[in-house]
User: Fold this.
Amino acid sequence: MKTKLIFAVVCCCIMFGCKNNASEATQKQPDEKPSSTYQYIVIVQEQRFMGNHGPERQLDAVPINMDNDTLAYIEAFKLFIQANKKNVDAIESEAEQFNTPIDFKLLNESGEDISKTTNFSTKEKIENEIFDHFFKIE
Assistant:
């Protein structure tokens, strides 16, 4: 129960943190840090049903607007796990060709990849909760 509550709180933070419209931007206090734009880039390897592998490649960047690196990382990790779930579904439906997500990058506004350097005390726990959310064993 406690795990579900924490996960729900994290999801709410992510969902409400994604909202970034003009009216909200004008309502921010002068001392508040404006949200930053990050770039999420997933790295995939093309797979064919018969087991042939194509080269690794990066898909187009997806912008993520968040207030800090931690929230941006959580959103990027969620997108990565969601892409993996879609990949598993493609395999199970015996699709002839699909992209297997193998890693992701999260670029800050300076263009630095922060996906491997972003750390916070509950990182592993939140990652596990996100994974469990998409890959529920029933």
Remarks:
- The CA atoms of residues 26 and 128 lie 36 Å apart.
- The chain has one domain: 2-20+36-134.
- Strands lie at 36-48, 53-58, 62-66, 97-107.
- The first helix runs from residue 2 to 18.
